[in-house]
Design brief:
Elements: E1 6-13, H1 20-39, H2 49-57, E2 62-67, H3 69-77, E3 81-84, E4 96-100, E5 104-105, H4 106-113
Parallel strand pairs: 1-2
Antiparallel strand pairs: 1-4, 1-5, 3-4
Length: 118
């Protein structure tokens, strides 16, 4: 039995001051996009597919964190899943709203997002 605690982290852009509903929709977009990509056989995250399966089997734990624009851009630059708004409601078109990390061990993610708050 694995001793790893698999979690998927979502980092929300706190500088956009999105409503709770808008934030929930953006995180849902990130969750859907990342799950589809990770379930694909042609994923850029092929090395993460085994972790994805373990995460699915262990209850799909998710944690939502707050970050600023620069922190999201840094994660985006590392190739993590990014969501940009279509600009139909609250915020400007193209705004970087959420970054989704693939499911990974909590301790591994700590170096990437450990400094961010809930």
């Amino acid at each position: 039995m694995s001793t790893k605690d698999f979690v998927q982290y979502f980092v929300v852009n706190r500088e956009l001051n999105m409503s709770k509903g808008k934030t929930a929709a953006q995180v849902a977009h990130a969750a859907t996009l990342s799950a589809i990509e990770l379930a694909s056989t042609n994923t850029a995250f092929e090395e993460r597919q085994a972790d994805f399966v373990k995460w699915l089997q262990s209850g799909m734990k998710k944690i939502v964190l707050k970050g600023n624009q620069a922190e999201l851009e840094k994660l985006q630059g590392k190739g993590y899943f990014s969501i940009h708004d279509s600009g139909l409601t609250e915020i400007q078109k193209g705004s970087l709203t959420v970054i989704a990390l693939p499911p990974m061990d909590m301790w591994e993610a700590k170096e990437l997002v450990g400094h961010l708050t809930l």
